[in-house]
Design a protein that fits this description.
Elements: E1 13-14, H1 19-25, H2 38-42, H3 44-57, E2 61-63, H4 71-75, H5 81-106, E3 116-122, H6 124-128, H7 144-161, E4 167-173, H8 176-189, E5 195-199, H9 213-223, E6 227-233, H10 237-253, E7 257-261, E8 267-269, E9 274-276, H11 284-296, E10 301-302, H12 310-324
Parallel strand pairs: 1-10, 2-3, 3-4, 4-5, 5-6, 6-7, 7-10
Antiparallel strand pairs: 8-9
Helix pairs in contact: 3-5, 3-12, 5-7, 7-8, 8-9, 9-10, 10-11, 11-12
Length: 326
């Protein structure tokens, strides 16, 4: 089974951080149904710059700016199907080109291995652009075949575009029904692709639809060998310890990697389509120390999601190196 993550061996690898956060810092208003993919239309060089910032900070795996990039999403903005496909491909191309440029300039420095590029494939709720990925209630009306068609379309667009990622990352999946559909699609339609299936956590041991993360992992692993890693993303750091403890043994038993890249702890306001600090937000130093603990609890890869920055990633790398040298 092809698994690009094996290049890291037993070494912990670092996932990049929040993409939209960095685009907003550069002055972009991404309060839009396309979210960070909107910048593909406006100023793609800023997307490249964010990738480079994360690579410089220490990321071993960078993720494309295509979380909310879909054919239907772009067409709703007046673009043709062909133009929509071009923008989706561009998101992956920018990530690959940024990685290659960075590696050409930095190969052999600091004991780094060549970073990987992951194609971000947001869940069906991300396409709805109404915060549905935070509850997954759309599972009650969307059929398995609709899930499969939705995800298959974007994969085919990228494959036909010719600039391929190293790994495919299905992000913020809130419900087991969608996870099952993705797993079956990978097993039958894309037997040569390696993927990460990343769920959003909602409580100590559950994903957002109310099923346990352990059940979700066992189910998807049993369906598709192409899921080479389980992920937990865009989840409060306060929930990660218990989620890891509930599922790390399942990943080990099934020979799969385990990635955690939570958000900063801020909460998402569906009406305003923005994050805000309600009770807790992990400062970079605290976040980095938590990553050290998450590795001790079984994580093979750590990083950040919404509202985390290159500084979070820089401090994560420093904390892991310090821990390794103790």
């Amino acid at each position: 089974m092809y698994d690009p993550l094996t290049q890291f061996g037993d070494k912990v690898f670092i996932v990049d951080g929040g993409f939209a956060t960095e685009l907003e810092r550069r002055g972009h208003n991404i309060n839009d149904t396309l979210w960070s993919a909107k910048v593909l239309l406006e100023k793609p060089e800023d997307i490249t710059a964010v990738h480079i910032d994360y690579l410089n900070a220490g990321a071993d795996l960078i993720i494309s700016s295509t979380y909310q990039a879909t054919i239907s999403g772009f067409m709703s903005k007046g673009f043709s199907r062909e133009q929509a496909a071009e923008y989706i491909v561009l998101g992956t191309k920018l990530a690959v080109e940024a990685r290659d440029r960075w590696w050409n300039e930095n190969s052999g420095k600091g004991n780094r291995v060549k970073p990987l590029v992951g194609a971000s494939l947001g869940c069906y709720g991300a396409f709805l652009a109404d915060g549905s990925e935070y509850d997954g209630n759309y599972r009650l009306t969307v059929t398995e075949q609709e899930f499969i068609s939705f995800h298959r379309e974007r994969i085919n667009v990228i494959l036909e575009g010719g600039v391929l990622p190293d790994i495919w990352i299905f992000e913020s999946v809130p419900c087991l029904e969608e996870g099952i559909a993705i797993s079956r699609m990978l097993a039958t339609d894309f037997p040569t692709l390696a993927a990460v299936l990343s769920f959003g956590g909602a409580s100590d041991q559950k994903i957002r639809c109310g099923r346990t993360l352990k059940e979700a992992a066992e189910t998807v692993f049993s369906i598709s060998p192409k899921i080479v890693a389980l992920g937990i993303n865009c989840t409060s750091p306060l929930l990660i310890d218990a989620l890891l403890e509930s599922v790390s043994d399942v990943c080990v038993a099934n020979h799969r990697k385990l990635l955690v890249y939570p958000n900063s702890g801020e909460e998402y306001d569906k009406a305003q389509r923005r994050f805000y600090c309600k009770d807790f937000s992990a400062e970079p130093e605290m976040f980095a120390l938590k990553c050290v603990k998450w590795v001790q609890l079984g994580a093979n890869g750590v990083g950040g999601c919404c509202r985390t920055t290159p500084n979070h990633i820089r401090l994560i790398r420093a904390a892991l190196i310090e821990q390794e040298n103790k």
